[in-house]
Known about the structure:
The chain is built from 20 helices and 4 strands. It has helices at about 1-5, 15-30, 30-40, 45-70, 80-90, 95-115, 120-125, 130-135, 135-150, 170-185, 195-205, 240-265, 280-295, 305-310, 315-330, 335-340, 340-355, 370-385, 385-405, 415-429, and strands spanning about 75, 155, 160-165, 300. It is globular, with a radius of gyration of 21 Å. The termini are far apart.
Amino acid sequence: MLTKIFGFNSKTMTLKKEIMGGITTFLTMAYILAVNPSILSDAGMDSGAVFTATVVSAVVATLVMALYAKLPFALAPGMGLNAFFAYTIVLTMGYTWQFALTAVFLEGLIFIALTLTGLRQKIVDCMPLLLRRSISPGIGLFIAFIGLKNAGIVTSNASTLVSLGNLHEPAVLLACLGILLSAVLLVRGVTGALLIGILVTTVVGIPLGVTHFTSIVSTPPSMAPVFCQFEWASILSVDMVICVLTFLFIDMFDTIGTLIGVSNRAGMVDENGNIPHLKDAFMADAIGTTLGAVLGTSTVTTYVESASGVNVGGRSGLTSFTAATCFALSLFLAPLFLSIPGEATAPALVLVGVMMMHDIRKVNFQDYISAIPCFICIAFMPLTYSISDGILMGLISWVLIHLGCGKYKDLNPGMIILAILFVLKYAFL
């Protein structure tokens, strides 16, 4: 039954690891339950309604991933995309949040069409195999940076952009302790090392004043204030087209990068770089985005934090089903889940970053014609705080360097077309 429903293979997978993987994935991305309502409320949306919309969209999209794609990835409204929604479209461009939700809805419909036609799969196939293999280490650095930032170990600095945080702060010390504990458990081969690290760090944070428990159970707020709130009057405006295309580019290549990177880490990619059920995974993402807009939240996307569950041992849809179940419980146990501080989930992100560096050995750094674009792809992800920018810059540089060196035969028409589109994207969007 588990094989038929979730793609579970009893010869290579264990029930315990699948469930532990789902719980770990949920805990490392549970911050979105607090962050997404906070960001979208800055755009004038009801934070309680957005919380419920965030949870429901995550549950449905992740269930589609579990039951349809049968892959161990979880989905929720994406970071970066929600910031573009609130701070660019609404607060900078001056449009209503209803206008922004309409853009997200149209993006979702386009994604469904692109997935049904197989175009998203063809885009992946156009990318050089070596560049695809460099995505995983890039994501590793990116999520490690997210973890260090969430923990306060790395902070912003006006002169140097980033610097070491204040090691005298209890929260920062707690995160360092969590990293050390999780690392020791991982090296010793303890099952569920990352999940144990999260839970222990959360408990230790109570006497330090970092973890704050208020209550356990609460009633989910109504989605009525944001449900189906679309603005069709401006659907044909130039700004609407720009917003839809921007959402489209960011979400498409964030998702492609996440699926390729995490699948590489999970060993689910064959020698030709093919990922099983990739089209189905894209459909889960497209359905999640479209439904999320209807419910009242920003673009739903596949989460890079899914790598934490994969590294615990999650390999099938049972992992994502467990994560979806945790999200469903969070509707009623929100205060409990939201009490887990960023300092407790940071160790898992940092150590998953270490694990995802594995594929960097597949890049020959003495072959500069391919090493330079791969390095750009890897470096740009954390430095621009964007998976999609890393992929786009990597592919643009791959094409331009090969053209500059006269290596025309190493390029296919798809690569060149994508590179031209990416350049136009940066020029006009």
